[in-house]
Specification:
It is found in: Cell membrane. It is built from 14 helices and two strands; from the N terminus they run H-H-H-H-H-H-H-E-E-H-H-H-H-H-H-H. The chain is mainly alpha-helical.
């Protein structure tokens, strides 16, 4: 039992269950299956982006342009749909564009050696500017989108929206990627000790480039899902959402210094924020308290991460002294 509770993911899962139980005491309908499925579906974009951000952070980088990538890909998808482009091509274009935008970040970090935070802060602004240029500052509204474009993420299969199934499939894919592939192991190696990774034959820059490309492709997918679900596209869509994505990773135990993290942690970190954002308004708590609670959770997560790293260092030193 102690070993289970010492697991960051188990502890976070228990906290989420306690939160849901506490909220249900005041609002019993919150634990209804349909409502919980709705919370999962609402949190799906955050989970998808958190998974992409996770692989970037694992390699000791960060992607602050993820929300701007989402917005640009979503706007391009909406404009292509307005031109009559078939839906499969629209989705492929959104994912492909996201991958290209992520690759641009990766190349700048890899080939020019620019710090990731500087690169992605710059491209974040550039991507928002491109949205304004291609849309001329106008919104694309529901009546300008086809029914098929809007209907895909909202369609249901076995009682769950298609967007939730897409999220489940991506989570399963990431489990395989991280646990079963050489690329997944190289993410940890690069973030844990870049010098040692080089000696094992891993190309650090290329691994970081691939991580940014994966993050961008997921942002492109979420861009389509977001715009189609809410049936609107505009310049400032998902503005500030990149902070929620980073927060989900930090709360989920992804080491901001790289080299440590799990798929379950990223998903649970996103679910934690999703439950807060869905539940607190229902029970009448001010949005300002939501921000305070989210911020407190992030600070607590950082403290726990720091304590975990400190304990590991002491154990190594003690082992060395005994030897």
């Amino acid at each position: 039992m102690i070993r289970i509770l010492s697991s960051r993911e188990a502890l976070l899962g228990a906290v989420i269950l306690v939160m849901i139980a506490g909220i249900s005491l005041r609002f019993p309908g919150f634990i209804a299956p349909d409502n919980l499925a709705g919370v999962f579906n609402d949190t799906s974009p955050l989970m998808l982006l958190a998974l992409g951000q996770m692989v970037v952070i694992l390699t000791k980088c960060i992607d602050l342009s993820v929300a701007a990538t989402l917005a640009l890909c979503g706007m391009v998808a909406a404009l292509l749909n307005g031109m009559g482009v078939p839906l499969p091509l629209v989705i492929a274009a959104a994912i492909g564009l996201g991958a290209v935008l992520g690759a641009i970040n990766g190349i700048l970090v890899w080939k020019l050696g620019i710090p990731p935070i500087v690169v992605t802060l710059g491209t974040m602004t550039i991507f928002r500017g491109i949205i304004f240029l291609i849309s001329e500052g106008r919104w694309v509204n529901a009546h300008q989108m086809s029914d098929g474009f809007k209907g895909l993420p909202r369609g249901e299969f076995l009682g769950l929206p298609v967007m939730s199934w897409i999220t489940i499939a991506v989570i399963a894919g990431f489990v395989v990627l991280i646990r079963q592939t050489a690329l997944g192991r190289s993410f940890f190696a690069v973030g844990g000790n870049a010098h040692a990774a080089v000696y094992t034959g891993i190309n650090v820059g290329r691994t970081q480039f691939i991580a940014f490309t994966i993050s961008g492709a997921l942002a492109g997918l979420v861009g389509y899902l977001w715009v189609a679900r809410y049936a609107v596209a505009y310049v400032d869509i998902a503005s500030g959402f990149e902070l929620d994505v980073v927060a989900a990773c930090v709360i989920g135990g992804i080491a901001i210094a790289g080299g440590y993290g799990t798929v379950a942690g990223a998903v649970l970190g996103a679910l934690f924020l999703g439950v807060i954002k869905n539940a607190l308004p229902v029970i009448g708590i001010s949005p300002f308290w939501q921000m305070a609670i989210s911020g407190s959770a992030i600070v607590l997560a950082v403290v726990l991460n720091a304590r975990r790293g400190r304990v590991q260092g002491r154990l190594i030193l003690k082992s060395a002294e005994r030897a």
